[in-house]
Amino acid sequence: MIDFERVEPDLCPPELIADENGIRRFELCRNRYFVTERVAMVSGAIFKGECIGESLEVWGVIEGRAEINAMQLEAVRFALLPAALGDFTVRATTSATFLRTYVE
Fold it and tell me: CA neighbours within 13 Å on the CB side: how many for 80?
């Protein structure tokens, strides 16, 4: 049984952590297990990252369209980027908003 009186549920306000080259990143959640960001990109913006064997990443398009390493994604589609992937590129083909989750 869940005792909702014991702990008051609360959401942390998003924290802007980066704003450059048409990409705005907001940290939504950080704990000992993972980090989740909301990433807003203008059409044509490019995010470059890398999975170097230590952690995978999950990118989900929640609005707009994008390419992740030339794989087409549209709203409500997710991509799992494996830890051994290496360099990757996310390109917004329209203005797009993503959820990005990774282990730090």
Answer: 3
